Amino acid sequence: MARKPKKVPAESTAGGAKVSRVDVEARRLVTVDEAHGIWAGKKNVLAFGPKTFWDGAIVRLRPPTDVEEGRVEDVKKALAEAGVVRIKLEVRTGAILPREAIEKAKPARSSAREVVLLLVAESNSADVDALREVVERVMSEEGL
Amino acid sequence: MKILVVSDLHLDWVTHGVPRFEELRRALLVEVVGKAVDEEIDAFLFLGDLCDPDSGPVVFRAMATSITLAKKLEAYGIEQVWIPGNHDVIEDGSGTTTLTPLAAIANDVVHVHERPGKVVLKESVTVITLPFVASSEAYDPESWVEGAMKGVVGPVVVAGHMTNIPGVTPGEEATEMPRGREVRFPIEKCGRADVLLNGHFHRQQKTESGIWIPGSLARLTFGESDHQPGFLIVEV
Questions:
Q1: pTM
Q2: Which one of A10, A24, A60 has the shortest CB-CB distance to B230?
C-alpha cells in the first residue's frame, strides 16, 4: 500500500483558527455480499476494482446460496492473486447445514466431576494422587 | 502556530486475524512524521487510545512506538501533548495508563497529561487537556475547564478524550470496541477556546457544536469500511 497523506482545504473555526483534514491511504475492508456483481458470470475480480483497490485489503465474502462451491473457490483464488491478505468466508444466508455439521459444532459438555478431575490432573501438586483422593472424598460428600 | 493532531491508534487491534500494528506504526513514524516535517509543524497532540493495556506483548511494542515517535518529533523541535483515552487506562486503582512509560521521559518538550492539565506551547498557545482517566482518578470536566480558563491570555485549545459528545456520529468505538464509561465534553464551558478537539470517535468529523475529531489512522473494523482515515492540522 503506497501511502501519501493528502491535505484538503482548511476550514475556519468559530474562534478564528484554521483546521485542515489530512487523508491517509489506508488498508481497505471490503464486503463482497450476495448482491455483488462478482458472482454473476465469470468476470475477473479486477473488473470490480483495480489491483490497487484489492491490494492489502481484508475481504468479507458472502456468496449467494445458489452459487457453486467451484465459483466461490475461483473468486477466493482471484482475490488472493489480486493482493487480498485475508478472506473471511461467511456462512451463506439461508444455507442448509448438514445435521452432522450442526452436531459437530455443538460445544462438548462435561460434568462437574469430569471438570474437577481434569483440573486435578493438570495441577502442579507434588502428589496428584493424594490430591485426587481428597477431592474424590469431598465430591462424594457433596453428591457429585 | 501549526499543530498536528492524531488520535485513536489502537496499535493492538487485529482485524479478522490480521494484526494492524505494523501498518499503523508505519503510518505514524513515516507518514505523520513526514507530514510534520514537510508542513513545519510546531506542535503535536495525541488525543488518546494508544492500545488496551491487556492485549499481550503487542502492548510493549505499542508503548515503544509512542516513545520512538516522541523522540523523533522532539528531534525536530516539535513540542508535544499526549493524553490517554478510555482504552489506555488501567483500572487497578493505580491511575496508570499505557502512556505511563512515555510519561517517564516527559520534559519541557514532551508533555504527558494522565490527569487533566494545562500547558502553554511555544510560549503562545494554551492547551487545556481533558484526558480519560481511571475511575479512581475521576474528575469533573466542567469545573476543571472553567477553572483552567481563568486568567488565560492568548489562543486556547481544548483537547480531550471524552466519550459523550452531543451531535457526534458514533461508530464502532461504541459497538464493537466499547470500553470505559460515559464522560461528557464540557462544551458549555469552552466558549473562550479557539479550537475544540476530541479523540475517541473513529470517523473524522466536525460536530455541529464545533468540536473537531481527527478520527483513526486506519479502518479497524468492517463497520468503518466507509471511513476516510487521517489526521488534522490546526493553525492557531
A1: 0.84
A2: A24
Count interface pairs A-B at CB distance under 8 A: 99
The label of the residue with cell 515503544 reads: B64
**What fold, for B2-235?**
Purple Acid Phosphatase; chain A, domain 2 (3.60.21)
More confident of the two residues B161 and A142: B161
Q: By CA distance, what is B28's nearest residue in A?
A: A24
B63-93 pLDDT, tens digit each: 999 999 999 999 999 999 999 999 999 999 9
Strand partners, B79: B43
**Cα distance from B16 to chain A (closest Cα, Å)?**
7
Residue A122 has pLDDT above 80, yes or no: yes
Domain spans in chain B, listed from the N-terminal domain onward: 2-235
Residue A95 in this model has a pLDDT that exceeds 80? no
Beta strands A11-12; A18-23: pairing state? antiparallel
Q: Which residues in chain B have Cβ-Cβ distances shorter than 8 Å to A29?
A: 15, 219, 221-222, 224-225
Please give the single-letter amino acid code of residue B91: E
Cβ-Cβ contacts under 8 Å for B205 (sequence gap 6 or more): B168, B169, B213, B215
pLDDT at residue B58, as a whole number: 97
Residue with cell string 517517564: B104
Give chain A positions within 8 Å (CB) of B191.
none
